[in-house]
Amino acid sequence: FSGPFTDVVTTNLKLRNPSDRKVCFKVKTTAPRRYCVRPNSGIIDPGSSVIVSVMLQPFDYDPNEKSKHKFMVQTTYAPPNITDMEAVWKEAKPDELMDSKLRCVFEMPNENDKLNDIDASKSAPVLNTSKQDGPMPKPHSVSLNDTETRKLVEECKRLQAEILKLTDENRHLRDEGLRLRKVAHSDKSGSPTALALRDNGSNSLPSLLVVIAAIFIGFFLGKFIL
């Protein structure tokens, strides 16, 4: 079964009778509530074949969870003048029954499958049900990636604006610090007021540089994590 599994996914089984007698068949599954099988039983004429549609119901797909679902196609030769299918299976002996077991596999299509599906849809407008169920919801996943990219670009722009703002403030404070140092040097008397202003100007620069460094580190870390 090819995902995504947000809608019903259908896979067809082709059952062929290579013998010269009529054959009764019945399809069983270990998860009857998850699948709808049409037809789930019947008779196949000699040399003929029957298409059985297996419809998987929507569910939350987990790629880490291994599928344990299995199907079994059970067959037996049809008795002459058959009238009751249930009686055939109840009266059949174990050595008269034949069966084939199938294990379910869930797969999500990759990018190459998407391109192949697009090319196939252009060359062949009529597709069977199993191929239609796969690629239909794919545009939704593309729009989701675009949304995440847009958010990342906006976050980068916001961080760049913050960096420019802090750079301007740092330049202003640096100029102010230079001016205060000049005032301090020109003040030969060494008054306490001049010394206090000089200390404030020099102390503000290291703290601002620490803030800018923290923003750069957060920006790069966030970029690598995303």
From TrEMBL:
Membrane topology field: Single-pass type IV membrane protein
Protein location: Cell junction, Tight junction; Cell membrane; Endoplasmic reticulum membrane
Domain MSP, first and last residues per copy: 1-107
Region annotation (Disordered) ranges: 114-143
GO biological process per UniProt: neuron projection development
InterPro entries assigned to the protein according to its UniProt record, in alphabetical order: Ig-like_fold, MSP_dom, PapD-like_sf, VAP
Gene Ontology cellular component annotations, sorted alphabetically: bicellular tight junction; endoplasmic reticulum membrane; plasma membrane
Organism domain of life: Eukaryota
Major subcellular location class: other
Transmembrane spans: 205-225
Coiled coil: 149-176
Single annotated GO MF: FFAT motif binding
Keywords carried by this UniProt record: Acetylation, Cell junction, Cell membrane, Coiled coil, Disulfide bond, Endoplasmic reticulum, Membrane, Phosphoprotein, Tight junction, Transmembrane, Transmembrane helix
Family affiliation: Belongs to the VAMP-associated protein (VAP) (TC 9.B.17) family.
Function: Endoplasmic reticulum (ER)-anchored protein that mediates the formation of contact sites between the ER and endosomes via interaction with FFAT motif-containing proteins such as STARD3 or WDR44. STARD3-VAPA interaction enables cholesterol transfer from the ER to endosomes. Via interaction with WDR44 participates in neosynthesized protein export. In addition, recruited to the plasma membrane through OSBPL3 binding. The OSBPL3-VAPA complex stimulates RRAS signaling which in turn attenuates integrin beta-1 (ITGB1) activation at the cell surface. With OSBPL3, may regulate ER morphology.
Protein name per the record: Vesicle-associated membrane protein-associated protein A
